[in-house]
Amino acid sequence: MCEPPLRPDRSHIPGSLAALARWAARRNRLVLAAAALFVVLTGLLSAGVSAHLSSGGWLAENTQAAQVRNRLAQSPHGGMPPLLLLARTTGSVDDPPARTAGTRLAEDLRQVPGVTGVDSYWTGPLDPTTSTPALPPPPDPLLRATDGHTALIAVWLDTTEPAQHAAITEVLAHADGRHGPLKTRAAGEAAVTRALQVYSERDLVRMELLALPLTFVLLFLMFGSIPAALLPLAVGTVAITGTAAILRAIATMTPISAFALSLTTAVGLALAVDYSLFLIARYREETALGRPHAQAVVLAAHTAGRTVIVSAGVVAVSLLGLLLFPVPLMRSLATAGISVIVLAAAASLLIVPAGLACFGERLAGRDVLARRRQAARAAGRWATVATAVMRRPLVVVTLTSALLLLLALPFREVTFGFSAERALPSDSPVARTMNDVHSGFPHLGTEIDVVLPDWHPARPEDTDRLDAYARDLSRLPGVQGLRTATGTYLDGKPVGRLCQPTEATPSHHPCAGLRRFTLTSGTWLAINAEPWPYSTAAVDLLDAVRARPAPVPAHTGGATADFLDTRTSAFQHLPGAVTVVTVATLALLLAFTRSLFLPLKALLINLLSLTATFGAMVYVFQQGHLRHWFGDFAMTGNTDLSLPFIAFFLAFGLSMDYEILLLARITEAHGRTRDTVRATAEGMQAAAPLFTASAAVVLVVLLALAVTDVAVLKTIAVTVALSVLLDAAVIRPLLVPAVMKLAGDANWWLPAPWRRRSPLRPGPELPRHHTAAPANPQPADDVPLST
Q1: Three-state SS annotation for 693-747
Q2: Does 76 fall in a domain?
Q3: In the predicted structure, residue 81 carries a pLDDT above the cut 70
Q4: What confidence score (pLDDT) does residue 760 get?
Q5: Domain carrying residue 157
Q6: By mean pLDDT, which of 344-348, 516-520, 533-537 is the weakest?
Q7: Last residue of some domain: 187, 213, 230?
Q8: Distance of CA 240 to CAs 243, 468, 562, Å?
Q9: Mapping DSSP to helix (H, G, I), strand (E, B) and coil, where does residue 458 land?
């Protein structure tokens, strides 16, 4: 139960943060009740949010490959089928029972709402918009495996997210099983996407069940008090449920990745703990210095609250860079991340002062582990480490920089691609089926889609030109088959037509193929090739296709084109995103520290630490080293294109969080001592317990995310966790003091016109006659934590 309302704080501490804390403290019951109501309402609004999120969004928008996807979506059989049914029988797929069962299944599938087209080895293309199927062609050899026991049924789906989700559900329930002599299993992009969504939802629950209890135990060890440990969890709950409700609303207007929800939970919980930790620890420090309870609450918000504001601003600005990429996945993560950061900061500045006022001085006095921390703090170990580092700064800078660069070396061997089904656990039914498709139908490994915009072979001479173009493309090395309106081609020769010629459809006319390969906006050619879509051979084949003369200027799409265009677009937008993040971060740190060197130093050191993160991403997840440390995952042989960008901006923001905390205490100490070495040692002694404790919580949350089954989440979690570990164990305690010592007075230099005090400047500004605290307060030896 809350204690009686605080007596009014008479210290007149200036500033909006102090005013906000006074208001929250005086109305603590109202604030806590409003927070509980907010959690209930946002929990109800976000119920079932996972069902409205997408597992796609990996491809860049507004590229040539994207235009081809949009054109092919106009056809009921356009592009690579999103859903494949692998049909296997103990006999031959040409036996009458197998043919009958396959034909009946294909007919049933075309009746499912949301299915726009069906093709199979036995039936040819079936269009749900027509009352009767096309004239049956000879069996399509491309849809029959060489073993004679396996064939494929290809299903095209409505491209709108809700209709596709409903169609997949019904198709899988209807078709994944046994049909007469045929046993069918699902594969294809849509099946992979559905499996990723299911695994993500399950992994999110597993992560929460693992992370929350461990986080509470760590918080109790930090604070030695159950009420104090519950406050950060309350802040995290507000931030997470609020962000989930925001994502639910945004998902009605634009696709939002399901991965955004998992990362939101991890980042929201980590930052909620960080910000609450800053405020509660500062409150305890002020009460240990003898300040009255009411004044300590306000002063904690006035001082540590500035650190919270700047930290939230820098982390949000870091994720803002992801919004500048034309990749929906990155934008989804940025939207979710920024939302949870803003809510975590706002909730901590309201709930923590209200909680401190509600629970009263019990939070300051009831610390069952105070004696142990008192002894550790009295020893001044962190100040001792900083002082020792500053005796040999050049040696420390050289050795730590060499270590970080050595860890970064594997990134030289990075090979970009997309994970596709390899993001699933190796024992996933969909992953196993995809492996069977690749082995039984190697020619379907890569499809290159060629669209001839606004051109239709309506005249015989146009048909001849299309036939000559198709023959030319089918001769290219690596092509295993080509299909278009004039028929099927292999090695420069036609091997089959898409219909039987009749008097109404003479042999030179594309006949039934027009319905499949002639779009309203042009003509389409489908090239099937053996190389893996993201391999060098596939890229070379795509370049060769683009170089061949066509009847009209051709546009290319498919998995390889999607990858190349997304990679080109991402790297084109990278300089602008980095510039925006760098300039905004420098501006915030400049206002916060009143120094020109400290922000530049922070940026350079953070970039150095991130290089090691990229090296680990390649060494572990691309090359497969140390796999047994991080659970079973499929070694892809490449690094998913989006992951380095996501890990960079996310790890950059979290590292800056610790940098701001350390700079706040060093700058505050320098304002008292005017001695760089002493200020660095005092700042390290005050801040290190906090950023190490915070790093421990972040590591717990991220490693709980790392036990997920989805390789994408596992990769982000492990690499960002390594960045946090290096930051807390190497960068802050070793590299930062060494650089501070080498820079000396240059740390504090600022051009004369900029020397006016910044409103973000850290440090208490109290009229000393309003308190019983000492005239020159110093961190007390018995303070368990300080900011």
Answers
A1: HHHHHHHHHHHHHHCCCCHHHHHHHHHHHHHHHHHHHHHHHHHHHHHHHHHHHHH
A2: no
A3: yes
A4: 56
A5: 82-187
A6: 516-520
A7: 187
A8: 5, 59, 33
A9: coil
Would the pLDDT of 508 be above 60?
Answer: no
| The predicted structure's pLDDT at residue 574 | 93
Q: What's the number of domains the chain is made of?
A: 2
Please, are residues 630 and 714 in contact by the beta-carbon 8 Å criterion? Answer: yes
Rounded to whole angstroms, the Cα distance separating 357 from 369 reads 22
Question: Which structure tokens are listed for 570?
Answer: 């991402």
Identity at 716, one-letter amino acid code: I
Dihedral pair phi/psi, residue 529, rounded to 5°: -135, 160
Gap between the Cα atoms of 689 and 140, Å rounded: 68
Whether the Cβ atoms of residue 636 and residue 419 lie closer than 8 Å to each other: yes
Q: How many CB atoms lie within 10 A of CB 380?
A: 16
Within a 10 A sphere around the Cβ of 34, how many other Cβ atoms? 15
In a domain, 783, yes or no: no
Residue 461 buriedness (CB in 10 A; 0-12 / 13-18 / 19+): exposed
CATH number at residue 157: 3.30.70
* Radius of gyration of the chain, Cα coordinates, nearest whole angstrom: 31
CA–CA separation, 254 vs 141, rounded Å?
A: 40
Examine residue 594 and state whether it is found in any structural domain, yes or no. Answer: no
Q: Which amino acid is at 764?
A: P
Where does a domain end: 563, 583, 611?
A: 563
The string of DSSP letters for 545-585 reads HHHS--SS--EEEEHHHHHHHHHHHHHHHHHHHHHHHHHHH
Q: Is the predicted pLDDT of residue 512 greater than 80, yes or no?
A: no
Considering only CA atoms, which of 524, 523, 528, 591 is closest in space to residue 559? Answer: 528
* Interatomic CA distance for residues 430 and 691, integer angstroms: 42
State the pLDDT at residue 510. Answer: 41
pLDDT value of position 158: 82
* Cα Dmax for the chain: 106
Residue 123 lies in a domain: yes
Residues 416-448 as b or e (16 or more Cβ within 10 Å = b): bbbbbbbbbbeebebbebbeebeebbbbbbbbb
Q: How much is the average pLDDT of 437-466?
A: 84
Mean pLDDT of the chain: 82
